[in-house]
Inverse folding.
């Protein structure tokens, strides 16, 4: 596996939640559902409880051996296709750094942080 | 080395910069200078150009083998002592997860994101 796409399932999202049912799945769980079943080759989708980016949810992170790690935020289930396309490009890049113009718009505009590769 | 403290040297910071000299060192470089020379045991301080958290700078990240990685923001050189104390606690925690009450206040309040350990 060349990359892991971590999806925060506890994110409440930044958009108002119009579902009146307090037991309805959280925005993060809905994002995970929208992503699941479509993992590109080389990408494993992994749910995680809290990426500590609560005010910027929904959030996902990409990591992989010898690669920079990235965290993205302010995502919704509607972004699933772009997230998967960005994850595929990340998996294919040896150091995880995808050329700027090849990144999906949400990855260019909604990066929360990146961390250098493990030494 | 049990932990690396990555310090973004290109951060301009979120506070107004009162230095009229456009060639003066950036806030991130000043933060690095405030941290350097005092690395706790097990912590290596490493400058990095851009942690992609520009709107939340100054930013630092902590990472280490088999540990969660963390990114913190809105830091200033005045926070150096707290950052170093938090980095020492992080280095000593096998998975990088320091009990909440043992984290410095800036780490409790100014977390931008965290990423699960490498598999």
């Amino acid at each position: 596996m060349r990359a892991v796409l971590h999806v925060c399932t506890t994110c409440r999202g930044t958009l108002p939640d119009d579902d009146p049912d307090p037991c309805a799945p959280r925005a993060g769980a809905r994002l995970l559902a929208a992503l699941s079943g479509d993992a590109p080759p080389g990408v494993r989708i992994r749910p995680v409880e809290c990426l500590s980016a609560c005010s910027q949810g929904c959030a996902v992170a990409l990591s992989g051996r010898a690669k920079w790690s990235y965290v993205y935020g302010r995502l919704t289930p509607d972004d699933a296709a772009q997230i998967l396309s960005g994850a595929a490009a990340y998996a294919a890049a040896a150091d995880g750094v995808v050329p700027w113009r090849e990144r999906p718009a949400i990855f260019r505009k909604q990066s929360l942080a990146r961390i250098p590769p493990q030494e």
Observations:
- Helices of chain B lie at 27-35, 80-92, 105-109.
- The domain at 3-115 of chain B is CATH 3.40.30 (Glutaredoxin).
- Strands of chain B lie at 3-8, 43-48, 60-63, 69-72, 111-115.
- The two ends of chain B are 19 Å apart (CA to CA).
